[in-house]
Amino acid sequence: MTSDDERRLLRHTVATLAYRAGKVLRDFPPELAERRVAPATRTPLELLGHLGDLADWAAGLARGDPTWRAGPPAPWQAARLRFFDGLGALDAELARGAPQSRPLPKIFQGPIADALTHVGQLALLRGMLGAPLRPESYGRADIAVGQVGLDQPPPRAEFDGDASRPAR
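Predicted structure:
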């Protein structure tokens, strides 16, 4: 795989992260943002703040700056914007070629993989807190390289039920 191939794949992964996060964060009930389901778990707002930290760290890695910086706590809307702005900064660095960046697989295995995990946690918390998402065939989603902002396309192939369970 060439570095151009790696860059294209990482940019598509960042767009996938943006799409999935956009679905989870769209219409997120504000009254659930600071709910904690167990003493040792993060709240949705804390997870969203961490997602912003991860996006900023990934953009820094792409610029050649490996420094981790935890951002200050912020209200829901500001934290959401920070996360998507961070994805935009990362995508812009990747689109430029960023010759000073960390190896692209390291950017994936660190902040991007962690962010995908936390988006899944937010989806799970939504369901636990009474605001579940409909399942979707993500292979049919309108995901495009460079489409990493807050405004994501609507779902194309949602369904009801659980596709993991055998039909009866």
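Summary: The domain at 3-140 is CATH 1.20.120 (Four Helix Bundle (Hemerythrin (Met), subunit A)).
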